[in-house]
Task: structure prediction
Amino acid sequence: MSTAPSHRESAHPTPATYVTIAIILAVITLVEVAAVFVEALGAVLIPILLVLSATKFAIVAMYFMHLKFDSKLFSGLFVGGILLTSGILLALLALFDVFVS
Result:
């Protein structure tokens, strides 16, 4: 019988990976800020910002909290939580007719 641990182990990211992730997060933030100033986006602005924010949350949780290297359950809990919260927020906004012009 083997006494070796059964979990998988992978190498942690290099500093260059963290710089790449930081650049990606900065670009997403730039798109968010630019989207606010584009008047033509009016009705779809909130969903765009929600998707971009959820994407940034997932990236931060996966890399900076090292969830990418842990069990998939932890990633599912974090990402599932933000998706559930976003759905509840959208339902609440729809309940109060925020999307009706």
